[in-house]
Amino acid sequence: MARREREPRRGREAARGSRPARARDGQARKREPRDAPPRPRPAARKPQSRARTRAGAGTGGAFGMTGTRRAALLAMVVCALALSIAVPLRTYLAQREELREVTASQETLRAEVGQLEQRKRELADPAHVEAESRRRLHYVRPGETPYIVQLPGDEERELEQQRPETKPAEDKAWYEQLWDSAAAR
Fold this sequence. Notes:
The chain is mainly α.
C-alpha cells in the first residue's frame, strides 16, 4: 500500500493537484500536501433555467440579441417569405384568370360550331337552297316571269346599304377635318 501512495496521481486528481491555488472570496486557498487524501467535492449547484440565467446575466436574450435585433431579424424573415410566395402566387392567379377566359371562349366557340352545323344541315336541303337563291339573288326557274316591285322608300334604303360607312366628322381631329375640307374642294 505504501507504494500506491507514492505513485503519481493520474487523471483529475493529478490535474487538480498541479493547479495553482485560486483566490476565492478574497482569500487564498491553501495548498494541500500531495500525500493528503482527496477532498470531497462540494455539492453541484442546481442548474437554473436558461431563460432565468440569460435574463439575469444580461446577455440580451436568445442568441445574444437585443429585442430590436430580434424584431429586425423577424421582419427580414417575414419579407423573405412574402417575396418567395408572391411570385408563384401571382403566376397561379394569372393562370387561373387565363383558364377562365379560355373556358369562356371555348363555350362561345362551341355555340358557334352548333350554329354552323345547323346552317350546314339547312343548306344540305335542296328546297332551302332554292328558297335562299330566289330571295337573295332573285333567281327564277325557266319559264317564270320575275316581277320586282319598288316602293318609293326602297331606293333610298338600297343606297344607304350600298354606301361605305364613313366616320362622322366629330370623331376626326381638327387637322383631319381641315385636310378633308381642303381636299374636297
